[in-house]
Amino acid sequence: MNPSEPLSPNNQSEGTVAAGPDKVPGHSRRVFLFKLSLLLNGAVGAVLAVPIVGYLLGPALKKGSSYNSWINVGALSDFPEGETRLVNFRNPTTTSWDGQTGDIPCWVRRISGNSFQVFAINCAHLGCPVRWFAQSKLFMCPCHGGAYYEDGSRASGPPERGLFEYEHRVVAGNLMISAGKMPTLAAGNCSKPKLTQIEPSSAATAANAHDVKPDEDSHPRNS
Amino acid sequence: MASLKERGIDVYNWFERRLGLGTPAIEAAEHEVPSSTSSWWYVFGSAATVILVLQVMTGILLALVYAPTASHAWSSLEFLDHNVTLGWFLRAMHGWGSDFMIAIVLIHMAQVFLFGAYKFPRELTWIVGVFLLLLTLGMAFTGQVLRFDQDAYWGLGIGASIVSRVPLVGGPLVDLMLGGPIIGGPTLSRFFALHVFVIPGLLIGLVGLHLLMVLRLGINEWPMPGRLVNKKTYVQEYHKLTEDTGIPFVPDAAWKDAVFAAVIMLAIMACALWFGPFGPTGQPDPTIIQTAPKPDFAFLWIYAVLAYLPPSLETPVLFIAPVIGIGAMLLLPLLSGEGEKHWSRRPVAVLMVAVIAVTLGAFTRLGTYTPWSPIMNAWSSDAIPESYLKDRTPLEREGAIVLQNKQCRNCHSIGGAGGLRGPALDSIASRMTEDQIIRQVLQGGGNMPAYGNALNPSETTALVHFLRTLRGGNLTPAIDASRKMVLNSEQPPAQTPEGH
Q1: Which domains does chain B possess?
Q2: Which helix (H) or strand (E) element contains residue A117?
Q3: Chain A contacts of B407, Cβ < 8 Å?
Q4: Contacts of A59 (CB under 8 A, 6+ apart)
Q5: Is the Cβ pair B164, A4 closer than 8 Å?
Q6: What pTM, to 2 d.p., does this model score?
Q7: Could you tell me which residues come within 8 angstroms of residue B196 by beta carbon, excluding any fewer than 6 positions away?
Q8: How far B65 CA lies from chain A's nearest CA (Å)?
Q9: pLDDT in tens, B13-62
């Protein structure tokens, strides 16, 4: 800022104010005390900032995987082999004022036997809800036209990768999935590669899954 | 009566002696401005301020009823629309007010840019104005979230997906944005706090600063070609101009501001009355997936850009382009603070405004009908035109059924109905040979998924036979010249489509 005329009167007035205290003894002491009080308030502010920043960053400091827990999404008999079905579950972490937003849908594909794939509803592009079309064996996204094959791998459109998958296991005839966090490109729970075909717990299911695999696994998954 | 008037003056003086606000306020209102600034081009800033006041007022009135919780926000909007007297009108005013505010702010910005008003000594006024634009857009986005419906829910999902792409800190940023693991109660609460406290507070404070600077530095004079801004002489020249041609802002120049503000208010009211409030669309229930989420008008162009960017460029463009764009706007007055103000001597500036306006307009237009999106129910709602089935063989008609059942229509239109993601199929056989069609269907490519796993051989045969009849009236079918030579010389057995 160049010193234009509005500034100069202020400078003069400061000068006259500054001339005053010199007449009274103890000016330098008061200036020192004032600076000390500024320092004190700075320290108080820094202390106060700790709880404020901690409160604000609270949601980000929690580990992503700590939100996840195992949820029963239905008996095996609910999922016919070779079909992909929409299943809704209540998110394990909710507040009582979440209302309908706590109900999360996902796509469950039963390849055969105990071999499953559980896809997140959110398109890997920008999170819109993908819809399954059994006739053309495609998931299509209504937002920007992303399309995925039946095994969740990217078919076309703007997504950079295949659909997000939930970790899952079969316990006592029920399908359990590990869910709790909205899947995004950054969410830890969804970036684990190859959850499905490697996971089967018993040797029997592994063998079972192996039988079906050859033509299903022809598309490399880039998750 | 005279005594009443005197009593009134006494009361005023009582307050004025203690407050001391009246005299400076009157002085500010009556300050001299160059007579050339009493123009219909200088009314947009004041109109934007008036709309801000309208938004604050209608916003407070809506907050009397609105329930900012994820479980009840949507039903409280329905309640506002249907059960509260004139609640629908207040919602409509607030919604249309926001669209008008964005439009007026953008027009104001373009006018200020074309008139060179950002040049010395008003650089900081422009920079504050850039932040005001960003805050206005922030109000629009957070306001769209508070209209807690399907579009808001999935809009938050889009926002979170964009944020998740930030390198290194994407995950924590998503958590900060959502306030929890999913879009839910805490998400709406924090957007409520942003929309009602944080952003309006900043907005009102910065508008005050913006106005203060306009008063302190004087309104930009009407630019004249060849009258260059020089930091050494500008202030003197401006003061001389004001002395020579000065008129009091109130009332000589302000009447145009007042008339325009009234016209804008009437326009907002007319839109509110005629078109009514925005939404809410369906309930914010993620299990209802039969939805095609769309952002509000101001963000349609971003929605369109995100559809057209190649996947590999998307993340870089998402984070580098805004930095460049906003950085350029902030640096503009610092880099080009002197020189010519008149638009006729600044062709690049005029060209930039034109290109940006056309670009935003074109992308917004595309965003209104989203040609990149599959139409999810086209396959079950749009019938194949009768003429395309007349005099066709049973196999070809079977192929039409395959085309319908395999959702081809979601992306391809026939007879003007269907999706626009892929090319229209009405004349496909005049552009592609049979072999090319088979290859495209089975292997996909160029934005089309491969249907090799979804079609059995007989379905493929039927489909291709039907597609071969689509020649846009009666154009000649596309042929492969080399094929003809091979056929003539060898006369091989008939080709089957499963050869690929």
Answers
A1: 32-369 (1.20.810.10), 378-499 (1.10.760.10)
A2: strand A115-120
A3: 133, 135-136, 138, 140
A4: B175, B176, B178, B179, B180, B186
A5: no
A6: 0.86
A7: B59, B63
A8: 17
A9: 999 999 999 999 999 999 999 999 999 999 999 999 999 999 999 999 99
